[in-house]
Design goal:
- The protein has helices at about 1-30, 35-40, 65, 90-125, 135-170.
- It starts with a helix and ends in a 5-residue tail after the last helix.
- It is built from 5 helices and no strands.
- The longest helix has about 35 residues, at about 90-125.
Length: about 180
């Protein structure tokens, strides 16, 4: 009995030792040599530098259904204002982009209120025994509101960039 327990302990210890040696071998092999990587010319680097500060993370367009009327709610998201390049734009174009942002923000608030009212009406209708309210409808409508809010942030960031670029490069002022 004692011999068998000792044999199991020895086998386990041997297995651990072999695993440790093998792991150390792979770690030693996987460590890159700094000299080789540092000596690559700049043109051989596989990736360019990526800067993320102040960047809008997801700039993919939303599917068309997000802004269209859904479930006959008669709510349509406003169209995003056009981008204006502050470096080449005139003062009037920059001011017009600011006004377009103001109109877009107001229209987005109306859209979001429309969606919220629709969801509330459907919940009330379901409680009164009418058409049942289903959770996926609330999820989709909530997504539409979140997209609207994200688009407002994106439009604001674009206009802010336009203004900053105009002030820095396009205004004709030296300072």
């Amino acid at each position: 009995m004692l011999k068998r327990v000792g044999l199991k302990i020895m086998t386990g210890a041997a297995l651990l030792a072999v695993t440790g040696v093998a792991g150390a071998f792979f770690v030693a092999q996987a460590t890159p040599e700094r000299e080789v990587v540092a000596s690559l010319p700049a043109r051989d680097k596989p990736f360019a530098a990526v800067c993320k500060s102040g960047e809008v993370l997801d700039s993919r367009p939303d599917p068309a259904w997000v802004g269209a009327s859904f479930e006959k709610d008669n709510c349509r998201a406003p169209v995003m204002p056009a981008r204006v390049d502050g470096v080449t734009a005139s003062r009037e174009q920059v001011v017009a982009s600011m006004a377009a942002l103001k109109r877009f923000t107001a229209a987005s608030a109306v859209f979001e209120r429309c969606v919220q009212d629709f969801v509330a009406a459907r919940k009330t209708e379901g409680e009164k025994g009418g058409r049942p309210f289903v959770a996926p409808l609330a999820i989709i409508e909530n997504h539409r509101i979140l997209v609207s809010q994200r688009n407002q942030q994106l439009a604001s960031a674009r206009v802010a960039a336009t203004i900053n670029n105009f002030n820095a490069f396009g205004s004709g002022c030296e300072d």
